[in-house]
Structures are given as C-alpha cells and as structure tokens.
Amino acid sequence: MVQASAGALRRAPPLTIALLAVVVIAAASSLMVGPAPIRPGAVLAALIGHADAVTSDIVLQIRAPRAILAVLIGAMLGLAGAALQGLLRNPLADPAVIGTSNAAALGAVIALYFGVAKAFPLALPGLAVAGALIGLLALLPVARRGEGPSTLILAGVAVSALAGAGVSLALNLAPNPFAVSEIAFWLLGSLTDRSFQHVILAAPLILVGAALILLQARALDGLALGEDAARSLGFDLDRVRLMMVAGVAIGVGAAVAVSGAIGFIGLIAPHLVRPFTDGRPSRALMPSALAGAALLSLADLMVRLVPTSTELRLGVVTSFLGAPVFILILLRARRLS
Amino acid sequence: MTGLVVEGLGADLGGRPVLRDVGFTAGAGAFIGLIGPNGAGKTTLVRAICQLTPLCAGEVRWDGRSISQMEARARATTLAYLPQGQTIHWPLTVRRLVELGRLPRLGPLSRMGPSDAAAVDEAMAAADVTALAERETPSLSGGERARVLLARALAVGAPVLLVDEPTASLDPYHVLEIMRLLRRVAEQGGLVIAVMHELGLVSRFCDRAILLSGGRVVADGTPRAVLSPERLREVYRIKPEALAGLSLFARLGGD
C-alpha cells in the first residue's frame, strides 16, 4: 500500500511546483510579518514604489533582504545536505551535523572581531569559506574509510564541538566588549537586521557553490553503487569530491557568514523530498534546495510570530524540527543495517 | 593484436607486492574463470585491469589501445566491472538501478535517449529481471539482487565484462542461474572474466581458467588442464578428493 502510493507520487515536476509555491507563499508572508504587520495590498504597493516612505522602507530595506536571504541560505543548506548525503552515502550528513557550519562560523568570527573584515571586506566570506573547507577536509579521511554512518557522524560531532568552542573562545578574547553577546548569533543563527549588503555578499558565492555541486550531480548516482563501481562508470572521484567539497564549503561558508550557523535544514530537506523522487541522489538535489528554502523561510516566519521578549534564534526552531528527524533516521538506519 | 592484452602487470598494496609480471591475452567470446587461493591477487588483478588500482608495472590494452591512456568514458564503455558485494546505498527501482550502467554514455547535461532505453531493456531481459523493473531494491532477495546488479553491468554495453565473485552468498539454484547467464554473455560475443572460488563451477561453465598464486599466473588453459590434482595440492593445499567432498558442483562439473 505504502509503496503503491509512493509510486503514484513518484514524479518530480508536481513536487517542484508544490515546493516552489510554498517558497513563494512563505517569502511573501515574510514581507508582511514583523513588529509592524503590513497588509498584502500595502506590501504590493511598496514593491512597485507606490507606498509611503515608512512602509516602503520596512518592506524593501528590512524585510525584503531578510526574505531573500532565507530563500538563498535555506536553498544552499538543503542542497548541501543532499549533496553531502549522496557523496558520503550517509543519510545523516548535513553541514551543521558534521561541523561544517560551526567551522565556517569560526572563520567568520575571526574575520569580524579581529579587524580583518574591516581591512578587507571580502575576508568575512573568505575566512568563513576557509573554515568550512578545513572542517570538511578534516572529515574526508574518516568518510573514505567507510566504517559505517555513525563513525563519520561522531567525527563530525567532534569537529562541530571544537569549532563551536573556538567561536566562544574567539569571542571571549575579542577586543570588542560586545563580542561575547554575539555567541548565540553565530552558533544558533539569525536573519534579523540583515540588509541588501548581506545579500550582495552571500548571493554570488552561494550561486557558485550550488553550480559546483549541480555539475557533479551524475556522479552521485554512480556512487549509489559504491566507489569502485562509480569509478568503473568513468567518474573521476577525486575530482568529484574536490568539486563537491569546494561547492559545499563556498556555499555554506557564504551562508554562515551572513546568518550564523543554522542547524538541521540540510538534514531534513533531503529526507522530506526523497520519498517523492525516483530515489536517484541527483534527482533529490533541486527539490532539496527548494525544500530547504521553504523550511528556512517558514522557520524565519515562526521566530517572528512566536511572542517572546527577545526574538527567537533560528537555530532554536530548526533544532526543534531537526533533532527528532535526526533520531528517526538514526533508528531506521540501525534497523536496516 | 585484437582483444584484451595484459602484459607484465605489477601492483603493490600498502607497500606489499600483490601482482608480479601477470600477463595473458583473451579474445571476444571467452568465459575465463580467474581462480586462486585467498590473497592470490585475483581481485587486485581485476581492479588493475580496470585501472582502479595503480599499476607499478605493465600495461593493459584493448584492440591495441592502451586502457590507461584512454579517456575515462572510453575506458568505462570498454570495460564493465561488477565489484564484489551487493551494496546499493539508496533505495531505487530496479529499472533506475540498471540505467546507472548508461552513465558513461551520457553527457553531463544530456538525458537518456532511445538507444539507452533499448540497451537497458536488453540488459534487463538478458539478466531475466524485466519482471522486477518497478520493484524497489530493498525488497529484492539475494538472488534477484545479484541478477539486477549484473543487468546494471550488462547495460554498459562494454565488450569486456569483469565480475568479482558473482555467485558469492547465493544458493545453488541462483548460482547456476548466474553462471548460465555469464556463459550466454560470452556465447553472444562478450569477453567475460570472473573471479571464482568454486572450482567445480569453473570446470563446468568456463572455457578457460587462469590460476593465480602469490600474485603470479601459475597456470593458464582449459579448466581441466589447469585444475590438475598436483596443482590443487600445491596451490590450494588440498587433496582433489577433499574438493569433491567440499563442493556441491564438483561432480556436476565432470560431465
């Protein structure tokens, strides 16, 4: 029964359309929701330049960059999760779970609080990408030994904890007296008060990272049969790994540089869409990106809608969603192996 | 020289010599059993032919062209390789899995064409898995899985098929089924090289056996000639009578 119904749904285009609709609705709602609710008509007026100055500023300068970043960063995290799961053949892989996001946050913190980013503005995304790259490269030897999913995840937990501690330490040592209060931003993530400058900083790198991943999509299908079979099908796995790792590092590094480390989106998105695809890892990439965009946009709506004295951190919401999913996948993987 | 030429092949694994001066030639239409005790270098030889293991000496050629000089895709469409084991990392339908064999023939952005679909149909028919097309891989039995993975290797449409222990962990019925299938591939003009442990099967189905020991070819010829009692004693350290007792197929192989 379950298989039959999954078979009936097994076509990507309707899935893509449905996910796109959710992304558009969530992004549009994001323009309306906030401390000052704005009605749809007024949002539309602001978008075409016919609203009063205050409404127009709120919609275009405050909420639009936030909505765009939620879509871009969510898409990148979803895509990175699907790519890592395919590359490492591990259903638990996710940039946050395996420590890539925290490593990127450490790079960003070093750039921001020790004056590097002041001297060279590109040092912020640059060091975040470098951090992500180091975090990923540290895991590759473990991943390649192929000792089962849990070894990689444990190594990732170590990278994550180490980089997280590094973030706290760097902020404690930072000359800026306000730095310490920012720990939560970097380790839990937030899209509050982001501007178009942040969009300009992150968007090009996210697009480059996504392109690097998507160009190697076919190799992920070959890897479904293991490394030897993939290589015998003509894939240069060293090159595939290099491009994929670079793509994830560049995209996730740029995302973390403007939003901090946001957990679990890359874990949940592929598992949400996979039952509706034909199972090939390459076919999960684009839907995972869309699902990631939808999830992060919805999570960012939720932090604004839940009445708390200070705004909830994004990572709090995504962790509440993601941790149970993580445990479910872990239990299922146990049963299968 | 047409066909497959393996010349002076040497390979090391972790600093230990695993293959030394291995050479043989083989033409289309042959079914070769690659045999030898554990650690003889059988798997390494097959992987070395496919360039999956770095060579420290020697060369492999197909129809006069060096395999190592070939572009990756040309190599992948010349040699189809079915590794040991039955790992399938993601649940896929059988048809999607068999289609993976067409990957070397697709450009990065191109889709499967009618010729690819025809090759997949043909491979599925040859491995007798057409009826399983819409089944999901986790629901397959061991025997079905083995045939489906073989269909994937056949879908490549390569003139040479290298398989590593294709009958491992299968029951007698499915073992015979796989062996007949490989035999048929050879009869239809393919060159099949199979790493085998079951010597009775080699003498029954293969038209040639290559015996490896200590990383060298110690015998190469018809299975009957290669599997002489003296050699079994020397290389496998067993008495031929013991083999008959061990193997379900040894007596069947006598016909």
Helix content of chain A: over 70%
Overall pLDDT metric of chain A? 89
Q: Could you say which structural class the secondary elements and strand pairing of chain B correspond to?
A: alpha/beta
Integer-rounded radius of gyration of chain B: 18 Å
Tally of individual helices of chain A: 16
Task: Identify low-pLDDT runs of chain B.
Answer: 248-255
Shape of chain A: globular
Count of discrete alpha- or pi-helical segments spanning 4 or more residues of chain B: 10
Strand runs of chain B, count: 10
Give a count of the beta strands of chain A, DSSP E runs of length 2 or more. Answer: 0
Tell me the span between the first and last alpha carbons of chain B: 34 Å
Topology of chain B as a string of helices (H) and strands (E): EEEHEEHEHHHEHEHEEHHH
Outline the low-pLDDT stretches of chain A.
1-12
Oligomeric state as shown: heterodimer
Overall, the morphology of chain B is globular
Largest sheet entry of chain B: 6 strands, mixed
- Give the percentage of residues in beta strands of chain A: under 5%
- Major sheet details of chain A: none
- SSE class of chain A: mainly alpha
Cα(first) to Cα(last) distance of chain A is 24 Å
Give a written overview of the molecule:
The complex is a heterodimer of chains A (337) and B (255). Chain A is globular, with a radius of gyration of 20 Å. Chain A starts with a helix and ends with a helix. Chain A contains 16 helices and no strands. The N terminus of chain A is likely disordered. In chain A, helix 7 runs antiparallel to helix 8 and helix 11 crosses helix 15. With 337 residues, chain A is mostly helical. Chain B is an alpha/beta fold and 255 residues long. Chain B is built from 10 helices and 10 strands. In chain B, the strands form 2 sheets. Chain B has a 6-stranded mixed sheet with strand order 6-7-8-3-9-10, with helices on both faces. The longest helix of chain B has 16 residues. The C terminus of chain B is likely disordered. Classes of the chains: A mainly alpha (337), B alpha/beta (255). Chains A and B meet through helix 11 and helix 12 of A and helix 2 and strand 6 of B.
